[in-house]
């Protein structure tokens, strides 16, 4: 007798749990849905359906990758972030739910021109542009492969005509002024890299760490941001949860004021918000 979707699902759940994956039930449903080519909420209605051979093959391939702790978003090629789905490959950081705090903060005040430094998938910039139909944006990255993914996502969200994606080492190729600058830069210190969860081995190292003390990117961004921010403009930077005081100090020393630290849904420091004073140089 052929196996059912329910049989495959419970076997997969067991394998994922044995590999140390916490949300094994939810992930098993997502993987089964991808193997069957249906939406995840259909899977529970298909428990008694026979599991087709082609789906069984796809399932075992995806299960092996996930049990080796490859991120689910890499296997599915997609990640839901804020209000949209983003294409994700091994060349970009898998967008994290914590980063949605930065998007919310960006949307908390009006802006017409936004710059996103280190755009990766484009998840921050493109979410902001999709929510503000009158705004224009520039996204930069040092990685050409990441920029190709961001371009594909810009097309997918229908904002490509309002979005300029360019290769730049922080501000090196950026021209003009913006009223909002955002960034989620690599902020993990070199010494922390060996202590992280196994999934991070599959992400681009240059998206995670500065190979230094975790603050190198903030120093570079603070040094260049004032020249590219109009009077009254805002700067929003994602941070590691212990970096609030250090990043605030770097920004204060660079002449920013109205410094605030915003928390994520777990109550951890996640974003430093700063402004260029209206009367400044
Ligand atoms: C933590 S990831 C953030 C990606 C995306 N913004 C997000 O929030 O998911 C950091 C990004 O910064 C880029 N990056 C690293 N060094 C850079 C540099 N010197 N100039 C510009 N981008 C850089 C990486 O390639 C990576 O895409």
UniProtKB/TrEMBL annotation:
Q: Which residues of this UniProt protein bind substrate?
A: 184-187
The record's EC number reads 2.1.1.297
- The encoding gene: prmC
Family as reported in the entry's similarity comment: Belongs to the protein N5-glutamine methyltransferase family. PrmC subfamily.
Show the Pfam families listed in the entry: MTS (PF05175), PrmC_N (PF17827)
Q: What is this protein called?
A: Release factor glutamine methyltransferase
The reaction(s) this protein catalyses: L-glutaminyl-[peptide chain release factor] + S-adenosyl-L-methionine = N(5)-methyl-L-glutaminyl-[peptide chain release factor] + S-adenosyl-L-homocysteine + H(+)
The chain positions of domain Release factor glutamine methyltransferase N-terminal read 10-77
Query: What's any GO biological process attached to this entry?
Result: methylation
> What top-tier enzyme class does this entry carry?
transferase
Q: Which SUPFAM superfamilies match?
A: S-adenosyl-L-methionine-dependent methyltransferases
Signal peptide boundaries = none
The GO terms describing molecular function are: nucleic acid binding; peptide chain release factor N(5)-glutamine methyltransferase activity
């Amino acid at each position: 007798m052929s196996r059912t979707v329910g049989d495959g699902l419970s076997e997969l759940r067991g394998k994922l749990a044995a590999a140390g994956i916490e949300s094994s039930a939810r992930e098993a449903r997502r993987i089964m849905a991808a193997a069957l080519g249906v939406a995840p909420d259909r899977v529970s209605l298909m428990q008694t359906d026979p599991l087709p051979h082609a789906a069984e093959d796809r399932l075992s391939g995806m299960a092996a990758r996930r049990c080796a702790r490859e991120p689910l978003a890499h296997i599915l090629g997609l990640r839901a972030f804020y209000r949209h789905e983003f294409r994700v490959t091994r060349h970009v950081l898998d967008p994290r739910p914590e980063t949605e705090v930065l998007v919310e903060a960006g949307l908390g005040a009006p802006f017409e021109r936004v710059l996103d430094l280190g755009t990766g998938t484009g998840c921050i910039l493109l979410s902001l542009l999709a929510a503000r139909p009158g705004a224009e944006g520039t996204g930069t990255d040092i990685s050409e492969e990441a920029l190709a993914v961001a371009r594909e996502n810009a097309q997918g969200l229908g904002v490509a005509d309002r979005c300029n994606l360019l290769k730049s080492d922080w501000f090196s190729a950026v021209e003009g002024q913006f009223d909002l600058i955002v960034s989620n830069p690599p902020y993990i210190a070199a010494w922390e890299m060996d202590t992280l969860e196994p999934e991070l081995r599959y992400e681009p190292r240059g998206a995670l760490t500065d190979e230094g003390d975790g603050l190198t990117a903030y120093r570079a961004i603070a040094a260049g941001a004032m020249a590219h921010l109009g009077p009254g403009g805002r700067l929003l930077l994602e941070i590691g949860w212990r970096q609030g005081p250090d990043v605030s100090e770097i920004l204060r020393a660079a002449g920013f004021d109205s410094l605030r630290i915003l928390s994520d849904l777990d109550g951890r420091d996640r974003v430093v918000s700063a402004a260029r004073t209206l009367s400044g140089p």
